[in-house]
Amino acid sequence: MKDSNRLRLHEEILLLGLRDEKGTVAGNVWMNYALGGAILAELIVDGRLKVDVEGKKKFARVTSPRRMRDPVLGECLAKVRDAKRRARLETWVSRFASVKKLKERVAEDLCRTGILRAEEDKVLLIFSRKTYPEMNPVPEREIIARLRQAIFTKTREIDARTAILVSLADSTGILRATFDKKRLKKAKDRIEEIRSGDLTQGATKAAIEAAQAVILMTAIMPAVYSAATH
Questions:
Q1: What pLDDT does residue 225 have?
Q2: pTM recorded for the entire structure
Q3: Phi and psi for 178 in degrees, rounded to 5?
């Protein structure tokens, strides 16, 4: 069974975004973009993609096309590898977000590890839908503890994945659904420091840029993101 230290970034984001008891996600469109940004960041951290910077534009380039065990990551890496033209980070966030049944596929992976369970219910007594209630709350609790430590303490030892997760969760409103809004407001400068990449180096800063690309996508959407409440 996976623990939170072994979860991929897109798995962590989905866990944070799910309503624990109902197993549903509020703000479905925004969750897809959060997942798209997390996948892009994961591929960068894993050394499969590199960010090429040209002026203000940032492009993703494949550096290691080796087959991946995670089928979602493998499919997204193949999209970059097989693209006829290179594309900017925000374009890849959008393309990854459009992967068919993305949320369900990530959730099913978490079901196989015993963290979630799959159920089916009816909407308006007519339409069937899959839900994914939490079965093992420990991994999510550990993720939240990592975020709390990073945001609300003065520690300078923030691991790469936690820094990326802070940036992703803040960009998509998930932080506001996880922690008290007044506390987050007071920690605004700290969050910005984490998001700027000042506490990280190298590949991590590039992956944080992938998280920032989510902001560019959400800014052009007409709806307002509503993250899940716990």
A1: 38
A2: 0.85
A3: -100, -35
